[in-house]
Amino acid sequence: MTGDGTRCVHGGHGEGVLGEALHPGPVLSSTFHLGGPGDPTPTDFYGRADNPTWRVLEAAIGDLDGGECVVFASGMAAIAAVLRLAGRDGALVLPSDGYYLARSLAHDELGPFGVEVREVPTAGEWPAKVLDGAALVLLETPSNPGLDVADIAAAAAAAHAAGALLAVDNTTATPLGQQPLALGADFAVASDTKALSGHGDVVLGHVSVRDGALAARLREARSRGGAVPGPMEAWLAHRGLGTLDLRLARQAANAAAVAAAVAEHPLVSDVRWPGLPHDPAHAVAARQMRRWNGVLRFTLPDEHAVGQFLAASRLVTSATSFGGLRSSADRRQRWGDDVAPGLVRFSAGCEDEHDLVADVRAALAAITG
Ligand SMILES: *Cc1c(COP(=O)(O)O)cnc(C)c1O
């Protein structure tokens, strides 16, 4: 089983057992039978410690990530677990242009405990001494919302030379798009709320690592911190994962078409999608990504223009988050990202390409300036 589609469809599904369900439901239980005196404590004894439905999903994602997966209640819970576990014995290096809550978590919750937080741009040119005394480097590539790209292998080598660990937020790429562990990262973290689950009905995250002892520490941290996913969410995520290969292929093709279409419009500037041959990040992205992602960004003149674009579109929903079946767009400055007022993060969905491109063209034409 080597192909992406086969691995997505079959991941986590074990050998069939006579008469048992092909698609077993979620195990909705907080407590489990402990047996009698002398029986060993089973793997499943309490719902905060472990759950059979989590393990099925963890097997599937871990196979795709090339490591051991630990699922969490959300992407932020996964990031928080990594920062708490590995980010306290020295400085913490984070992207200045990545997901905003990772930064505020570091500054507002770890900072007061004496952790020094340093910010670096995803695209590189890091200050010479930024890794001195660092315990953990977190990269996000492609970054959200900037769609910039960091060189994972180079960052892993630099972090390790400085005695730091490297975590990569792989949300935008998904495990099919990029394999941070194979490129040298110590942690692959992701919000599976986005493309991995893919249907906009689940909040979930995970961390994958190559080292079994580190995975065990993450599981203990999950149990202590209590940021555990519900079995229903894990089950839905596993169901969604089955079609990730198909969805990502359509989303990436649609992203390419939308990027090309918007780039032709005179009111649009700064189109970024790593798959565009002339994108500043294309060369490094092409080296380290296996497949392109379905999210792009572009800039309209101002907030008003974005409002007109969204009002005129019939297929593009105004919504935050990304990676779902339906195309959506989000004006990122409204959430406090340090970007132009007209910057739009566009999540290409699974519509037919010609319908989506026609709709986007018509919506751009409705902007009166
Ligand atoms: C959404 C997102 C997160 C946070 O994930 P949640 O599942 O919403 O907690 C972290 N990193 C990136 C890049 C994201 O897009």
Automatic annotation (TrEMBL):
SUPFAM superfamilies: PLP-dependent transferases
GO molecular function terms noted in the UniProt entry: lyase activity
Principal EC category: lyase
Pfam family, one: Cys_Met_Meta_PP
Superkingdom of the organism of origin: Bacteria
EC number: 4.4.1.1
Cofactor: pyridoxal 5'-phosphate
Keyword annotations of the record: Lyase, Pyridoxal phosphate
UniProt cross-references to NCBIfam families, sorted A to Z: PRK07582.1 (NF005758)
Family recorded in the similarity comment: Belongs to the trans-sulfuration enzymes family.
PANTHER family in the cross-refs: CYSTATHIONINE GAMMA-LYASE-RELATED, TRANS-SULFURATION ENZYME FAMILY MEMBER
This protein's name: Cystathionine gamma-lyase
Biological source species: Pseudonocardia alaniniphila
High-level lineage: Bacteria, Bacillati, Actinomycetota, Actinomycetes, Pseudonocardiales
